[in-house]
Write a structure and sequence with these properties.
Blueprint: H1 2-10, E1 16-21, E2 29-34, H2 36-60, H3 63-68, H4 70-108, E3 115-116, E4 124-127, E5 138-141, E6 176-179, E7 189-193, E8 199-201, E9 206-214, E10 218-224, E11 229-239, E12 246-247, E13 252-256, E14 267-274, E15 277-279
Antiparallel strand pairs: 1-2, 3-5, 4-5, 6-7, 7-14, 8-13, 9-10, 9-12, 10-11, 11-13, 11-14, 14-15
Length: 288
């Protein structure tokens, strides 16, 4: 058999005649003419086709789960994705904790936001128009720990913290209350749902202590008021004021949105703090 295959291979480009004899009838014979090269190519093609069909059959049927570990790979990819999301959420929680700590420190040190006209070299001065007596009045603002200092070109109202915050007051936006104050689970304010783009207003006079973007809460605004009060607004679609701006009660400070990972639909998350302690805003604003 080996010699026959060798001969056929050597003469693969030639026509070969094969004679078949019957042992019972030697005088009867059959002959076939063929090219060994084409026969070999046909057999090789058939073999490859059979192998591919068997492979596809195994891969596309439940047998593939055991032979190729398809399910294990899918589970592994899912675990990797979940792990990456957990890491991202952990980073977001760390940032949130840092921001809460920063806000509490700012609120506790609220006395440092008093505006003074004394000359202190390390403070940033904002000059007003000259007057006859004294010839020049210089307003100065103390640095708020953890918060950007008010810029020199901004107008400073020295009486912004002289009045009291009056309660109850109107809510920052008219809408539907969808989430209440639940400090036990880390929810330190109210969720008020409203149409996206609706104006959000400040509940009292104050100064913008922070106007920024965070991963969890999207666009957020922190405002310092008199009496040690501070308000926080989250999930804006856009903000109107920058850090250091002075705002009056009823001023528009942003638009309702659903920015941030923790947002689930257009709404405003509103928090009320005093001297570093969170309060239930539902007792201080007129909630329907």
């Amino acid at each position: 058999m080996k010699k026959l295959l060798k001969k056929l291979f050597e003469r693969r480009r030639e026509e070969v005649t094969i004679l078949l004899f019957d042992d019972d009838n030697p005088h009867q014979q059959e002959n076939y003419t063929l090219k060994p090269g084409k026969l070999m190519a046909l057999l090789a093609g058939l073999n490859i086709t059979v192998v591919l069909l068997v492979f596809l059959f195994i891969y596309l049927t439940p047998l593939g789960t055991y032979l190729f570990n398809k399910e294990n790979r899918a589970i592994r990819n899912s675990v990797i994705q979940v792990h990456e999301r957990v890491l991202a959420l952990q980073d977001s929680l760390k940032v949130r904790d840092q921001q809460l700590h920063q806000i509490q420190r700012v609120i506790r040190d609220g006395a440092d936001t008093v505006f003074d006209i004394r000359s202190t070299p390390e403070w940033n001065a904002v000059h007003s128009e000259p007057e006859p007596d004294p010839p020049t009045v210089t307003y100065r603002v103390a640095h708020i720990p953890g918060v950007q200092s008010l810029q020199g070109e901004q107008i400073i109202h020295s009486d912004i913290f002289s009045g009291e915050v009056r309660f109850p007051t109107e809510p920052p936006v008219t809408g539907t209350l969808t989430g209440r104050y639940q400090p036990d689970i880390g929810h330190f304010g109210l969720d008020i749902a409203a149409r996206k783009g609706t104006d959000v207003r400040t509940i009292a006079d104050g100064v913008i202590a922070s106007s920024e973007w965070t991963i969890n809460n999207g666009y957020t605004v922190h405002i310092l008021h008199s009496g040690g009060y501070a308000t926080i607004y989250k999930h804006f679609s856009e903000v109107i004021h920058r850090t250091g701006d002075v705002v009056r009660k009823g001023d528009v400070i942003g638009k309702v949105g659903e920015t941030g990972l923790l947002a689930s639909g257009p709404h405003v998350h509103f928090e009320l703090w005093k001297n570093g302690v969170s309060l239930d805003p539902e007792y201080y604003i007129n909630v329907n």
